Amino acid sequence: MSDYFNPAGFPLARPRRLRQAPWARRLTQETRVHPSQLILPVFVLDGNGRREAVASMPGVHRESIDGILRTAEAASTLGVSALALFPVVDVALKCPQGREASNPEGLVPRAVAALKSRFPDLGVICDVALDPYTSHGQDGLLGPAGEVLNDETVAALVEQALMQAAAGADVVAPSDMMDGRVLAIRRALESAHQQNTQILAYSAKFASAFYGPFRDAVGSAAQLGKADKKTYQMNPANGREAWTEAAMDVAEGADMLMVKPGLPYLDVIRQLSEATPMPVLAYQVSGEYAMLKAAAQAGWLDERSTQLEALTCLIRAGARGVLTYAALDLARWLRDEA
Ligand code: PBG
Q1: 302-313, pLDDT tens digit by residue?
Q2: Residue 179 to residue 327: CA distance in whole angstroms
Q3: What percent of the chain has pLDDT over 70?
Q4: What are the residue ranges of helices labelled H in 124-277?
Q5: Helices 327-337 and 303-316: crossing angle, nearest 10°?
Q6: Residue 116 falls in the annotated catalytic set
């Protein structure tokens, strides 16, 4: 330990002194969370008046745009900063090239336009990736041997991101893990005079088994079958490699970086938030949500305190904000505590 860290030692030092009174615990608290640090991911369905429960994510629903607008109203009233849109695409619209991804009349641009006209102050984040649209469930285009092609996929992602920006998305968030996609998207946005569209780069997105419930929710699990995404998403065993990914995304013009999943990757959140002054967000993914929710429903964990603790720990590790399916509940609990 360095010189300045030289505690007197017991009994002069009694760290418990500061933990005795609630006022002193509040005063000395290092990390505070606020509803503005929350982003709510939502699953959008086509049609009207549709609302379906996601079995593996209790409390989460797929909703048509009318329902998403009600959710947006709640989010905005509670001070949540943004929604992240994930489309549930009709199987009939899926093809190997995922062409529906850049359809300007598609579900996502219609949802974006509806949200921005009703709630201009609520941020709207669009996922840039082909998996909801491909008949094989991969995030990219396939080559002859079934391999996921990089540069060809990047070209398709550029079209998708340009369409989302034109529809009014505040943020485009490439979650596909192709190399070079941030630079290609940034250049295309500049040429299209969309220079204020933010890029939230999923820099460190791991090939995680914690995405299972999400793939059920958007209906990509059936398409993907037994295949995996290990040739593009990162190996969960690699922490240092996240620096390479993050450095590239910063150099290529990203505005914010993301680490995903959240709680099992606190070390990566810490590393990236120290390595770059850029805002780093964390994604508490579907499997993390499902674990807490299932244990709470079984009466094994207290939902409110575990959710608040998980959020606090993600922020303590260095996340500037958190995407979480519990964003509305968390915002209510934070409001009631204040
Ligand atoms: C795919 C995508 C995934 C998630 C967000 N975007 C899943 C995947 O990579 O298969 C997962 C989110 C979650 O589990 O909550 N582009």
Answers
A1: 999 999 999 999
A2: 31
A3: 99
A4: 151-167, 181-191, 212-218, 221-224, 241-251, 266-275
A5: 90
A6: no
pLDDT, tens digit, for every residue of 43-64?
999 999 999 999 999 999 999 9
Distance of alpha carbon 36 from the chain centroid: 15
Where do we find the tokens 């990757």?
Answer: 265
% of the chain surpassing 90 pLDDT: 93
Contacts of 160 (CB under 8 A, 6+ apart): 101, 102, 128, 130
The 8-class DSSP code of residue 130 comes to: S
Confidence of residue 220 (pLDDT cuts 50, 70, 90): confident
Mean per-residue pLDDT for 152-160? 98
Mean pLDDT across the chain, nearest whole number? 96
Which residue has its alpha carbon closest to ligand 1 atom 5?
175
DSSP symbols for 70-122: HHHHHHHHHT--EEEEEE---GGG-BTT-GGGG-TTSHHHHHHHHHHHH-TTS
Q: pTM score, two decimals?
A: 0.96
C-alpha 176: how far from chain center = 12
Separation of alpha carbons 253 and 256, rounded Å: 9
SS (H, E, C) 173-184: EECCCCCCHHHH
Quick one: pLDDT band at residue 2, thresholds 50, 70, 90? low
Atom of ligand 1 nearest to the CA of 325: 15
Q: What is the CATH number of domain 33-337?
A: 3.20.20.70
Distance CA 138, CA 181 (A): 16
40 CA distance to ligand 1 middle (Å): 14
Question: Which residues form the pocket of ligand 1, taking CB atoms under 6 Å from any ligand atom?
Answer: 127, 129, 131, 139, 175, 211, 214-215, 229, 285-286
pLDDT at 5 over 90: no
DSSP-based three-state secondary structure for 267: helix
Q: 11 CA distance to ligand 1 centroid (A)?
A: 51
